[in-house]
Write a structure and sequence with these properties.
With 263 residues, the protein is mostly beta strands. The chain has one helix and 13 strands, in the order αβββββββββββββ.
């Protein structure tokens, strides 16, 4: 198995001490390629109601992915970067104030998602809990939703805070029904603190996101969110309005797979 060879029970633990960014500079510099290359900038602010829903390719990988938050596998360089995040609060339609880079890979075992979450105040990250399924509105958070069926109604939600606490949930009816935080996935994830913010690396086994009636679609609803609590900022890849939230998957973008072999 690639990437899931360790225990799949995801650990919510605080990192001890401060991890200097130079320790991982080479690997994270490679992962970060593309941050400065965002082109075709829209006229800001954009209107989330009319802005086109984005599409992003998930890249198949054959190399091993060790989930440790270091982002030092060469395979990550093959994943196209997501770099444009747009605020839903406080300044709706404006670009996020801190940079975020996300890459998405997959193989026959799992979906892999990793991010560098830049922060100009890395000593002021907000973490209120290390419990599993901690309240995501009470910490800095990196999160994403997956909608395997083309109905754009139900989704799987996964999230982590800078100190490695993890949460997951099921969402229903385009966020018109209560979120089910009692649902637990067999997933793996780690974070690292750096002098430029923090990193997150996650593996979601396909068995955790299989749904009844899956038609084998190569296009999944997908959205990624970054929350910075100290400035009350939420930003997403596929933009949301002030009264819309990440589980509103009708407003999500699309994650495109090249193939689906045995998952």
């Amino acid at each position: 198995m690639t990437g899931l060879s360790r225990s799949c029970g995801l650990r919510a633990v605080a990192l001890v001490g401060f991890v200097p960014g130079l320790v991982f500079f080479g690997a994270q510099e490679a992962f970060a390629q593309g941050l400065g290359g965002v082109t075709n900038q829209p006229e800001w602010p954009i209107d989330p109601a009319t802005y086109p829903r984005p599409t992003h390719p998930a890249m198949r990988t054959t190399g091993p992915i060790l989930i440790d938050g270091r982002l030092d596998e060469a395979a990550w360089e093959d994943g196209a970067p997501i770099t444009r995040f747009i605020q839903s609060r406080p300044d709706v339609g404006h670009p996020a104030t801190e940079g975020t880079i996300v890459r998405v890979l997959y193989d026959d075992e799992a979906l892999y998602i990793a991010a560098i979450c830049y922060d100009t105040q890395p000593d002021n990250l907000t973490v209120m809990s290390l419990e599993r399924d901690f309240p995501p509105l009470e910490s800095d958070v990196f999160s994403f939703v997956l909608n395997p069926n083309p109905d754009r109604l139900d989704s799987f939600l996964f999230y982590m805070n800078p100190h490695g606490a993890y949460g997951d949930a099921r969402t229903f009816d385009d966020n018109r029904a209560p979120v089910d935080y009692a649902w637990d996935a067999l997933a793996e994830g780690e974070t690292q603190l750096t002098d430029f913010g923090w990193t997150v690396e996650m593996a979601i086994p396909w068995s955790a996101v299989r749904v009844e009636g899956d038609d084998g679609s190569l296009e999944w609803g997908f959205n990624v969110q970054r929350r910075i609590l100290r400035i009350n900022e939420s930003s997403t890849w596929s933009p949301l309005g002030l009264r819309e939230y990440q589980p509103t998957v009708s407003r999500a973008g699309t994650l495109v797979f090249r193939d689906r072999r045995d998952f």
